[in-house]
Amino acid sequence: MRIQKKRILASILFVLISFVCVAQDPPPPGPPPPFGFPIDGGVLFGMAFALFYGVKKLLIKNKDQ
């Protein structure tokens, strides 16, 4: 009899938890992102590095000729 009461209690708890989980609505979607994100520092740093690297390679190439 004791095991049967545990099963009934577990079943009731499972059903109640299911109702609580279903009752929660997802949050409404946020506002759309603004148009035209600014370029962050990482992209600018990469472009500056590429520019300096390319100039260095050109200077070394011209020096060897």
Structural description of this entry:
This protein has 65 residues and is mainly alpha-helical. It is 71% helix and 0% strand. The protein has 2 helices and no strands. The protein has helices at residues 2-23, 41-64. It is elongated, with a radius of gyration of 32 Å. The model has no long low-confidence stretch (mean pLDDT 82).
Would you spell out the secondary-structure blueprint of this structure?
Layout: H1 2-23, H2 41-64
Quickly describe the structure:
With 65 residues, the protein is mainly α.
Main sheet record: none
Which structural category fits the helices and strands? mainly alpha
Low-confidence stretches: none
Radius of gyration: 32 Å
What order do the helices and strands follow?
A: HH
Q: What shape does the CA trace take? A: elongated
The helix tally amounts to 2
The beta-strand count equals 0
Helix proportion: over 70%
Question: What fraction strand?
Answer: under 5%
Average of per-residue pLDDT values: 82
The end-to-end distance, rounded to whole angstroms, is 97 Å
